[in-house]
Amino acid sequence: MDTALTRLVGVRHPVVQTGMGWVAGPRLVSAAANAGALGVLASATMTADRLREAIREVRARTDAPFAVNLRADAGDAGDRVRIIIEEGVRVASFALAPSRELISELKAAGVVVIPSVGARRHAEKVAAWGADAVVVQGGEGGGHTGEVATSVLLPQVVDAVDIPVVAAGGFHDGRGLVAALAYGAAGVAMGTRFLLTSDSTVPDAVKARYLAATVRDVTVTTAVDGLPHRMLRTPFVDSLERAGRARALVHAVRRAAGFRKLSGLTWPDMVRDGLALRHGRQLSWSQVLLAANTPMLLRAAMVDGRTDLGVMASGQVAGVIDDLPSCAELVDRIMREAEELLKALARFDGPGH
């Protein structure tokens, strides 16, 4: 299926596997790439040295194009951009809008830049700064999310910018791909659906929790870091919501220390990142620390399998997913469903026919 996205990044299918911390590692990314989708390597939970190793590991597993996802507000974002350029990565994606300078540096090196946004004004800004495409996530999407549904946000962004738009939030099958194309998108991006594949390294017991979830079990809470965060509701999430400020601060300091050791960041680095997160937001210092070490809460579940001590970011589609295909099986199924539906629509000549 030829779209502006497939032409831009050189993949066979207009499907993107999003960059999920602790989930989108070399195994999942290479499996998605080999399936014809755009695999996105999540780098925010890696040291700079590990990022370089992971890029090389993906390249050893696949000849297909793939992307690296960066945190635009990270203190070492410039260093990570240089690693991407030096390693010849074709596509850079961003969880937040990157600066004009980062976009220019990447584009000067021939790297395709695709930021993720949750509002029309943000899409307009990065398009004006030279972004090559944009992923727009509606409120159904997992992790940090907004209030506007994809079905409302997507056409707004498509109408506002003249670069390819990739739809995210609520997609898991061929019907969703066709719907996104009908809205004017050039493809779809999926996180939870790729997390729930046999190629994902998430522990089987954690995957079982996702598969057992209903749509009502996927909630939005600000208890983790003060920002709206979509995840599975668990007793641990309930305890975060009930915790007083002093208790939350103690837990935040402990987890921040753990993340500092894993990430290689210094305390000044973490304070700087925390200040960046706090800028313009009414966050308590415990929430700032939780925001800086949210990766530790995700790691507890996604790597260690401790759903009692961690959080499970999730899109609402977790409530309608009931299987664990390989990436190849998933992408093939999505494309087959989309092609069959497009053929059926081509024969459609009105209600009742």
Automatic annotation (TrEMBL):
<keyword id="KW-0503">Monooxygenase</keyword>
<dbReference type="Pfam" id="PF03060">
    <property type="entry name" value="NMO"/>
</dbReference>
<keyword id="KW-0288">FMN</keyword>
<dbReference type="InterPro" id="IPR004136">
    <property type="entry name" value="NMO"/>
</dbReference>
<dbReference type="GO" id="GO:0004497">
    <property type="term" value="F:monooxygenase activity"/>
</dbReference>
<dbReference type="InterPro" id="IPR013785">
    <property type="entry name" value="Aldolase_TIM"/>
</dbReference>
<protein>
    <submittedName>
        <fullName>Nitronate monooxygenase</fullName>
    </submittedName>
</protein>
<keyword id="KW-0285">Flavoprotein</keyword>
<keyword id="KW-0560">Oxidoreductase</keyword>
